[in-house]
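Same chain as my last thread, 1508 residues:
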Amino acid sequence: MALPWWLATTACAPPQPGSFADLLAFLLLSPCPQRALFGAVDLAFLVASLVLLACRLLRRGDSGAATPEREALLRKPSPPAPALFRYAVALGASAVFAAASVVLLALALLLLPSTPWRAAESAFLAVHAVAHGAAAWTVASSGRGAGAAPAAAGHPAHLRVFWLATALGAALSFASAAVRGADGSLLFPKDVLAFVGLLVALPLAYVAVTGFTGHGAGARDVEAEHTSAEVPAAPYAAASFLSRATFSWINLLISKGYVAGVLTADDVPPMPFGHRAEASYALFMSNWPAQGSQHPVGVALWLSFWPQLVLTAALGLARMAAMYVGPSLIDHFVEFIRRGGTAREGLQLVLILVVGKAVQTLASHHYNFQGQLLGMRIRGALQTALYRKSLRLSTGARRAHGTGAIVNYMQVDAGMVSSAMHRLHGLWLMPLQIVVALLLLYAYLGGAVFMTLAVIAAVTVITAFANKLNLSYQLKFLGIRDSRIKAITEMLNHMRVIKLHAWEETFGDKVRELRQDELGWLRRILLFVCANDVVFSSGPLAMTVLVFGTYLASGGVLDAGKVFTATAFFSMLNGPMRNFPQTIVSSMQAFVSLGRLDKFLSDTEIDSTAVERVESIASGAVAVKVQGGVFAWDSPAGEVKGKDVPPGHDAEQNGRGEEPEMETVLKGIDMEVRMGELAAVVGTVGSGKSSLLSCIMGEMHKVSGKVSICGSTAFVAQTAWIRNGTIQENILFGKLMHPERYSDVIRVCCLEKDLEMMEFGDQTEIGERGINLSGGQKQRIQLARAVYQDCDIYLLDDIFSAVDAHTGSTIFTECLKGVLKDKTIFLVTHQVDFLQNVDNVFVMKDGLVIQSGTYHELLASCSDFSALVAAHHSSMDMTGEQGCHVQNTGSSQATKSSNEIGETTAIASRKEAGSSRLIQEEEKESGRVSWRVYKLYITEAWGWWGVLVFLAVSLLSEGSSMASNYWLSYETSGGSIFDVTIFLNVYVLIVAATIVFEMISTLVVTFSGLQSAQAFFNKMFDSILRAPMSFFDTTPSGRILSRASSDQTKIDIVLVFYVGFATSMCISVVTNIAVTCQVAWPSVIAVIPLLLLNIWYRNRYIATSRELSRLQGVTRAPVIDHFTETFLGAPTVRCFRKEDEFYQTNLDRINSNLRMSFYNYAASEWLGFRLELLGSLILSITAFLMISLPSNFIKKEFVGMSLSYGLSLNSLVYYTISISCMIENDMVAVERVNQYSTLPSEAAWEVAGCLPSPNWPSRGDIDVKDLKVRYRQNTPLILKGITVSIKGGEKIGVVGRTGSGKSTLVQALFRLVEPAEGQIIIDDVDICTLGLHDLRSRFGVIPQEPVLFEGTVRSNIDPTGRYSEAEIWQALERCQLKDIVASKPEKLDALVADMGENWSLGQKQLLCFGRVILKRSRILFMDEATASVDSQTDATIQRIIREEFAECTVISIAHRIATVMDSDRVLVLDAGLVKEFGSPSTLMGRPSLFGAMVQEYASRSSSTQATE
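reply #2:
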């Protein structure tokens, strides 16, 4: 076949006017214009070098000594000297180019005839030599200067652009030279230089993009040889160029994983500094655009990572250029076999084929690897930026987004953007690949090729319409998925309350409903993807039919060479046309994710200037001062006005497009507190006390006024924030251990006895959110944390609400008035007892400080304050009267036992011996993914029948595809086609069958995959709902969320397609090898050992990759856990100024996850590089045997078909094995989800044969008989034989020190813990015979920590929707909330934010109380229910209990002795046994433990009463 004229001519002008495509091909691929183009690049570089040199000389002449006003305020860090290896590569390659150009110039002048071509070639070589000589001089001079003032790390931009242009030019020259070489029409010396030039230019392109220091961002992004002497060097950073090129640097890890079978995190080496999260984040933020940018994230990513994008683009171009070498050779092989030729010609064809495939393999895998590294760096930068932003979010922005949505930003959106940045090149590489293929087809088939434009146009129109619709589906899908994750997060955070109320089905139905909506949108999206896939994969087949038909109709003659050259080019269109829709979809998803990230990262932040901070403080100076302060909470748009905000759309509505609304809470605040003063803040529930502390910390929006604080601050929140870690780690909070100070802190915070009771003391690990501690223990641990920090100003929010009288007195005396006596303290409290011992009292009402002064001044002048004190005294009347009779009856034993009262027992004391860890390492399988997991996945939907149907349809699809090629081969083997009509009709029928079978197989695998995904989600979710409470106590929510989000996404989307692809590819590999070897059957002898080598490589790889994938999953959850923990405690972190320490912890966890990704990517390319080389070797052996074996061994009619199949064999084998490995890695997601599908279940929710009567319990009698409880087998008993009889309607108070068993008794009554021995009989029914829901739904409970769910007032007070509006209003009136709710425009539909953040703690407790009033249960349990309300509200609640629950049995655990004194009987527990049980008056009439408690509480208030 003759070459196209634009490849063969050496003319410098087109011989005749032609089409635009011909002109473009002439300019880019014809020798003389190529030379002119590259010469222009060389000249441009020389001009730029001269201009820059002149400017530098002029600056040097003008600049004198640096004047002070010109000196930088901060000295810039010196960039590192160039790495020796990169420096040598850059210098050597430039020098080789220059020297080679000089030699070739001499040869051209001596050997070429005197023609215009000789003149053009000589001029080009001369300019080329000078340009690369200048480049070598630039490199050498930068190396010399590296020691003193190293500009080297800056590597001039014009030099880097020149090197990149040289590499692109070398790739173009190589492509055209390879085609001329295949035709035997090489041009000297141009084509000789092209072959060598590409090999020399690629290292220059690498150095141009990565720079001398190894990364392409100049001095900002450096890999510090630097990091630390103790940190071992990363294998990638220390590897040679050859080792990097062949991925040999990871051999050691591959071998370790294969030999050991199991890898731990410590086995995985460190990764290069430039790929760590901190380096990527620093680069990303340094390029963050100024205010006003519509797409700041996209702009910053481009400015930060464009060099690596350019590198991957160059590698993609090189790969694409090499791809066309093989198809171009098919016609030459067919002609060689048919007509014969010399051995030299045959070997030349084989050599070109081998070189082309080798270059394609090298470029392809480095294109993939560099793209994956780019995505990894982007993910690290985005996750770090999201974490940093979450530490700075304003309160309104926090509520607008919520924890669940931000978890999605970190896990899903950052992942979408990072993966799409690599695939971004597909948007232009794939169309370019199609255009080049069509140009080459035009050279073979002429104008008939233009028929393909009709197919491309039709496919484009269909895709454009589909993708427009699909984009709206993507947006809805992402919003619903956010809502589902948010709902699961909320449910996990409050699982204890949900189980106590038997609300699992109510909240489970909410999640299931969201999942159904999510699945509906996912089904639409996947159907569109399937339709696109069918359209694009059938496009090349339709093109083949149209082009061949048109070519034959126009009188053309098809032979085997033309047919299979054309089919090879058409099959090259199959890849881009099949993958282009997925690329568009992922790009759209990334675009949507970028918009979400833009909104979040641009959202409102805490104003760091709202508070003026002075670090040093003089004695007697003003420590805190507020002047004319007006402060507001910024609420999400719509919350203040009561707009209907659909779930999952909060974040979008509160983006940059709509400003948050301000809800003014504090007005006219004027206050001043001097250093060393103890100031108290008092007021009724909702008066603004906690908000006052928030405005001092800078958490609120300052509308007007001035706030100034002098010194460091510490904060103890009303709702305790405890980190997952040991007690010691929580108290130290990043500070060094000072044993004496630590012991003092433990003592003054009354933690000594708690630590003594715990088997591992302060090394006991605390569960997530302090779940295994009582409220009092959590409060005292966070107080100890604040005291240990030794700050200047302490902001304490209601620290006495969760502790008993004696402990509160000790803390006030020993801590506030002792260790902290010289500190400035703000104390928000409801405890009136302490107020006469403070220096100043601020009284608040409706957001105003209505008066301040000393206790005695306020008693005389402030009526609101007097009312608070009077309410407290009235509650103490009975206690005081009865307490006077027992003043001398308390024994030493009683005093000792009263140190802790009313606190719930700690799970720490229940743990099994031998480990202080409550949260164990996450379970991780090892070794191969079990065949049971594969079987579970593929048979989950339709069983084995579904598998058989899919296999049958896939075999039919592949068989029909082979039949079409055999038909072409058969019809063209004799030269011309006998009957054109029959030929085309049969071919069209076969192609149509192929398309139909492929469509059926795609639909089968999609629908079965979706059904499997839903089945796995349902099983996991149902299993989690039915898991016992101990599972949630010991499992961080991040582990569950990781499975419900990222693992479930893999099952939803990734595995659906991977399984189908892998099956069809396995069939294709078998058929390809058979077809490739059928021409020269002896090649089977070589193919078999090479296939065995493929399997050997796969086995070595999968052992390591599987472990790395598991480690990726295991290291992903801690990132989310730490983020969730930080997000909940962000105000505390900010107040203590610990942002940097938390940021570093986050970096460590992200880097740990990135490290596993880095080596997983490298291992994947290690395998692919070797497999593709082996595939190329199989093809080369077959091609060599074709030209060397006798003709009787060769089936000449199938030579073209065999080569067209063989050309795709190397990539097909790689992708088949690679996808099989990816399936095994992603099957880990199925494995992890399945782990949580078979969790141990608590008892049945309903027992059909043991249903209680509808009005049970009707009396409320409770009989506990010899009750013994342990938390797990082989652990000590917590309750050691309790026998108690409670009559219906009795009010029972339960007291006892920590670990006495109070909480365990309540948990046993709710069967959160099952009895080991004994019985609990309620109204003649043994509760162990009932279903859990039948039992729990009949009780009322008010837990220690009030819990509100995101939604409305109505959905919170009546989650099950069983009560009328009138009943709800009546319940609100009884719990003192009617006026507050009625004042809101939305009434019962007033919004409740995530975690109830827009309600005060007291209001939340009252709303929880309203639930119980509405339910009207015969038995009510209260666990410190009035701890967070003032004395007036407490008295009101007690009155309501007496009136509303007069006939009910009430069991109350409370700290306020007045609450217990109102009980009919008091139950005193100690060490799991009943010590005392009787009426308060009876117990106080004799020496008793209870009497000592009353004496302590009464004596604390005696001075207050005397003052009155």
